[in-house]
Amino acid sequence: MGCCCFKTSITPITNLTNSIVNFLLQSGRIEQRDLQIHQAIISSVLRSGPDGLVEVCRYIQAKDGENIFFLIDQFEEIFRFKDTGDVDFANDAAGYVNLLMNAVHQREVPVYISINMRSDFIGDCAVFSGLTQMINESNYLVPQMTREQKKMAH
Known about the structure:
Helices cover 48% and strands 6% of the residues. By secondary structure, it is mainly alpha-helical. The chain has a two-stranded parallel ribbon with strand order 1-2. It is globular and about 45 Å long.
């Protein structure tokens, strides 16, 4: 699907919206001139409730049964709200995590999510109800990379 990396002024749900719309644009499913309307619709659906991501996945499925995969890199950026005290960002972050967890736990649409984050942030996941349990049930830890492996990864 796409990669969601948080930027300082963008909330998690806005970033998810932008990633989904960019995927639709790059795959030729929407045209550049329709970008803003799709951003508005997808953002609205994502913010409509805990099943918003499932509904968006239904929309972006090219055919029934097609798997939808989200790669979320640098997930630790979601914990930024603790340092800023920004209540709107904190609420958006909680809504975002709920969207992800509901999408993973439902069985109507085949949605798969990979969350990548630095291991020193694992404890921070307890801020979001249910996230730690979900990670404990499905984590895969990558050992620390050597200097040469880090060069190859870049």
